[in-house]
C-alpha cells in the first residue's frame, strides 16, 4: 500500500542514554536504583494515551534502591538507607494527609504531574543541558533518580530488593483495594476482572480477608491455572458466553457479588463490574487505568438501587507509613511477592521486557539496573 503523504504507525524503542542527574536540593533524595519492575502504567504512558504523559522523560515507578545522598533538611532518610520510591507521596501535613479519609497527598502532586521537582519547578535529569522530565515523581528506569523526601519509604535493610521492588505499585494496589478501599468482610463473594498482577493481588487480598468465593474473569483462559494459587476459586472467560458477563455472574451468584474489582483499564468492563454487583449493597472498585478521553457509564438506576462505585490509587495505602509494614509482612511470609516475579532481566533488555508484558505468562519483569 502506498504510504506517501500518509501518517505511518510503527514501533519505536526506549533508548538508553547517558543522563546527568543533578544533586538533590532541599527536601530531595538521590537514590541509587538497584532493581525496578515494569508496570502496565509505564506502557500506558509510553503509548501516548496518558494525558499527563510528558516527553522526553524517564519512566518507571516500581523499584527499590539505596539512598546515595540527601538534600538540606532531609531528616527521615540518610545515605545507605534501603528505600522504595513511592509515586503516591505522603507528607503527613497537607489537607489530604491530615483528613484521615484518603491516601492521596497534595504536597508534590502538581509538580510530579508535570515532570518536575517542587523546589524550583525544574528537572534534575538532563542530557547536554537539555532537561529530561521526571515521571510519577519516581523515574526508576534510571540507575540514579531524585525524588522528594515525601516520596520515599525507608525499609528493612534485610529485605531482598529484587523482590520488594514490587511493593512500589502493583501488589499493594491489589491488596489494598480489598483491605482499605472495599473492606471485604469474611464470607463475601468477590469478582475480579483481569488476572494480571493487580487482579491476582486482589484475589490474594480477598482470600486473606476470608472471602467465600473469588470469581476470576479473564479473556485469556491460560491465566486460570496460576490464579488458583492466588485464591481464585472459579473462572469465567467472557468469550465462552453469549450473555453479557454481568448477567452470567448475577445468575451464578443468586443476584450478584458483594464486591467486584476492575483490574484491566477497560471502561466497558468497568460497567460490567458495577452491574454484576448485588442490588442494595454490592460495591465495585475501579483499579485499572483507562486511556485519555475514555468515560464510564451506567444507568443511574444501578446506583439508586444501592450499588456503590469506587476507585483506588495505590490500594488506599499511605505510602511512607505502610510500605515498610508491607515489607515486614512479606519478610514474615504473610503476603506473596516472589510469586509475581516471572522474569529477571537487565536494563539493557528493557525493550524486550516491555515486549514480554504482552505475553500471557508474564506478570512482573524485574530489571537489575547495574549489570
Ligand atoms: N489504580 C492504581 O493505583 C493502579 C492501577 N494499575 C492499573 O491496573 C491495571 C492492571 O494492571 P496489571 O495487572 O499489571 O495488568 P495486566 O495487563 O497484567 O492484566 C490485565 C489482565 O486483564 C485481562 N483482560 C484484558 N482485557 C480483558 C477483558 N475485556 N475482560 C477480561 N479480562 C481482560 C488480560 O488478559 C490480563 O490478564 C492496568 O490498567 C494498570 O495501569 C496498576 C497499578 C496501580
Ligand atoms: N496520569 C494518569 C493517571 C493514571 C493513574 O490513575 N495512576 C494511578 C496509579 S497507576 C500506577 O501504576 C494513581 O494512583 N493515580 C492517582 C494519582 O494521584 O495519580 C492519567 O491522567 O490518566
Ligand atoms: Zn504501577
Ligand atoms: Zn500530604
Automatic annotation (TrEMBL):
Cofactor(s) essential for the protein: Zn(2+)
Name of the protein: S-(hydroxymethyl)glutathione dehydrogenase
SUPFAM superfamilies named among the record's database cross-references: GroES-like, NAD(P)-binding Rossmann-fold domains
Residue ranges of domain Alcohol dehydrogenase-like C-terminal in the record: 198-325
Protein family membership: Belongs to the zinc-containing alcohol dehydrogenase family. Class-III subfamily.
Keyword Plastid included in the entry's annotation: no
Spans through the membrane: none
Major localization listed first in the record, in broad terms: cytoplasm
Enzyme's top EC category: oxidoreductase
Gene: LOC105163593
Protein's organism: Sesamum indicum
Amino acid at each position: 500500500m502506498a504510504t506517501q503523504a500518509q501518517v505511518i504507525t510503527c514501533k519505536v524503542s526506549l533508548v538508553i542514554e547517558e543522563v546527568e542527574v543533578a544533586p538533590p536540593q532541599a527536601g530531595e533524595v538521590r537514590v541509587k536504583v538497584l532493581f525496578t519492575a515494569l508496570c502496565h502504567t509505564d506502557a500506558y504512558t509510553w503509548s501516548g494515551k496518558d494525558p499527563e504523559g510528558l516527553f522526553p522523560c524517564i519512566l518507571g515507578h516500581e523499584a527499590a534502591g539505596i539512598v546515595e545522598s540527601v538534600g538540606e533538611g532531609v531528616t527521615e532518610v540518610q545515605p545507605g538507607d534501603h528505600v522504595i520510591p513511592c509515586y503516591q507521596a505522603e507528607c503527613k501535613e497537607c489537607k489530604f494527609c491530615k483528613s484521615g479519609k484518603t491516601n492521596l497527598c497534595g504536597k508534590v502532586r502538581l509538580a510530579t504531574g508535570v515532570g518536575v521537582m517542587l523546589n524550583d519547578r525544574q528537572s534534575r535529569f538532563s542530557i547536554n543541558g537539555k532537561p529530561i522530565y521526571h515521571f510519577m515523581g519516581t523515574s526508576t528506569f534510571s540507575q540514579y533518580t531524585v525524588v522528594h523526601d515525601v516520596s520515599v519509604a525507608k525499609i528493612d535493610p534485610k529485605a531482598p530488593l529484587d523482590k520488594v521492588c514490587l511493593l512500589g505499585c502493583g501488589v499493594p494496589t491489589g491488596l489494598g483495594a480489598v483491605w482499605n478501599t472495599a473492606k471485604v468482610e469474611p464470607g463475601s463473594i468477590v469478582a475480579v476482572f483481569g488476572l494480571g498482577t493487580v487482579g491476582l493481588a486482589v484475589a490474594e487480598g480477598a482470600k486473606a480477608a476470608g472471602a467465600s468465593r473469588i470469581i476470576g474473569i479473564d479473556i485469556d483462559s491460560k491465566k486460570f491455572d496460576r490464579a488458583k494459587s492466588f485464591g481464585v476459586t472459579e473462572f469465567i472467560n467472557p468469550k465462552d458466553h453469549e450473555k453479557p458477563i454481568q448477567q452470567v455472574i448475577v445468575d451464578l451468584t443468586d443476584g450478584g457479588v458483594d464486591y467486584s474489582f476492575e483490574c484491566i483499564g477497560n471502561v466497558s468492563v468497568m460497567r460490567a463490574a458495577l452491574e454484576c454487583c448485588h442490588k442494595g449493597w454490592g460495591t465495585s472498585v475501579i483499579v485499572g487505568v483507562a486511556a485519555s478521553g475514555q468515560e464510564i457509564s451506567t444507568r443511574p438506576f444501578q446506583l439508586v438501587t444501592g450499588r456503590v462505585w469506587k476507585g483506588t490509587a495505590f490500594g488506599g495505602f499511605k505510602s511512607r507509613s505502610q510500605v515498610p509494614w508491607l515489607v515486614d509482612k512479606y519478610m514474615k511470609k504473610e503476603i506473596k511477592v516472589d510469586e509475581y516475579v516471572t522474569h529477571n532481566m537487565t536494563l539493557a533488555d528493557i525493550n524486550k521486557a516491555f515486549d514480554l508484558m504482552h505475553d500471557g505468562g508474564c506478570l512482573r519483569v524485574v530489571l537489575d539496573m547495574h549489570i
